[in-house]
Structure formats: C-alpha cells, structure tokens
Write the structure tokens for this entry.
Amino acid sequence: MPGLDQPRGQGLRQMRDPILGQSHVKPWSLVTCHWRMEPREVMSHYAFSTRMRVAPRPIHRTLTCSKSEIKATISGHTITVTLSTMLKSSFILLNGIGEATERRFWDAGVRTWQDFLGLQDLPGLSTGRKSLYDGELRAAAEAHEARDARYFRAKLKARDHWRLYPTFKTGAVYLDIETTGASADVGEVTVVGLYGQEKMTTLIRGESLTETRLNEELSRASLLVTFFGSGFDLPFLKAKFPGLTLDQPHIDLCFAARRLKLTGGLKHIEAECGIERDTDLRGLDGWDAVRLWQAYRRGDERARDLLVRYNEADVRNLEPLAELLVERLARQAQVPWLS
C-alpha cells in the first residue's frame, strides 16, 4: 500500500466514494494497524478505519505511533488515521441533551467527556444538573473502559448507535439472513450469515442452524450491524427463534444510508459506493436466494454453494459500507475534529 508498507508486486483495487469524491482501498485482504495512544483529532477519509485492505493475500503489519496520530499517503491524499473519539465526544447520551445542545458544547470548546468533567460549571446548566451529568459521564467512561457496548444500547437512540462503531467495531458482528420467501408466520430461515473478527460463519437450515448455536454466536458480539435488519432480519429471527437474545446495540445501515440521501437496496447502495461483488454474484437478489434454496432441496449442491456465497457477499460487504457511512454521519453531525 503506498505509504503503508505495500508488498512488492501487489497493487491496490480502489473504491470510489461518491460522497467524498475520493478513492479508498478495495476491501480484500487485511493489513491491521494498531496504535498505542488514542488520538484526539480526526481528519480525512480514513477517520475510523483501523483496517486497510490490500490484494491478494493476508499480510499483517503493526504500525505504532509515538505521538497522537499517524499519517500516510494513499493515492496522493495525506490522511490521518485515528481511533474511537466519536463516543467520548457524544453528549446526546445525557438525559435531556439533544444534538443542538451537544453542538453548543462543542462550539464552546467542551469536546469530550473529559473536557466536561474538568469544568466546575457550564453556562446554561444549573449546579444540580451539572452534578447529575458528571455522574452520568463517569458511569459512561467506566463502561467505555470496560468495553461494555451493551451499556450504551439504552443510552443512545437506535438512530445514533452508529456513534458506537469506531469504539466497538472490533467486536461487531455483521448479519444477514435468507428465507423461503414467505412471511415469518409461515416461512422459514434458510441461511444465517455472520461475519466478525475476520471470521465468516454460515448457519444452514437442517444442518447447523439452531437457536442454541445462534445464541452462542451472537453472545460474543458487542455490536450488531445489518442492512434493514430492524425491519426484516431481526424480527424474522425472533419469530422463528423466540429464545434468541439480541441485547447488543444495533446499527441498521439501511436507515443510516437514508440519512445520507442514499436510497435503494443493499446492492444498489453498494454499486453507488463502488463496492464490488464476484461476477457470478452480480444481479442476484433475495428472490434468487429463494430459488437457489428450492433447487438445493431438490438435490442441486451447486445451488447450495452459490446461495452460501451470495449470502456471504451480503454479509461481508456490510463492513466497508459501515466504514463509509459512519464517517459520513460524523461529518454530517459536524463533530469538531472533522470540521
């Protein structure tokens, strides 16, 4: 990777971000970057990206920085990579604080929980209210330190769970299901795809798909990421597996995209963002998944394999899409370190 220890003879596939008008690295094989310190400023397109991908085989590198940031040049752009500042700059988790008040805090130089706690008083807040918020932020800081994503599930509205992504994405699970095509009262789940911590897990009806196995897989997730999961995948799963525990924060990329004026289904938005699929998977949709399942039930093993690959593409592509949308949402929110 130019400026980031690119292996000899291995070029980059790039995606074009239609929102920012910049190129970024095609999700492929991993280069994992680690930092010793938590930076305080966020700049440029890779604000929340701790994983950059190069083709065609996994290569692991550890990059450390002695200061608060690391800079690199990719495709002619100088970028600053940083980690998990978004959550600690979020004040909307406080009872009675909305985005307008949060922005006033930022504009007044109160940009992090630590800034807030360091003040004895704050214009517009009574002494009692300031003391109450101090207690809430100390509790939030303890949960952050303990890596307790579930604590923040009720503290933030569902539409704001994207703010948790930079902090907890290493424990995120990306989920997508396939069904028989009927509604949940008469239909069945055929495939559940789960991707997290660089591992793909595929659970298939009649083979490995059970409520117990689903609970085992999801119990390890600190964050759940779907596309229209709140409207389809999760209600369907709960209907078929009533004992399923879904207690982690959930980021629904469908609604995140709509807030950014990106509309349509997953495949359409992938295309808009330059996220590619293998040639034989292009053009397939949910109804093709239904037909592939039916063909498999008639004995066509190739249909099963194609169905699994189709689902895996749905699941894996949620990760680069989340990276794009989360940064854009942060810019839309006018967080101070992106201004």
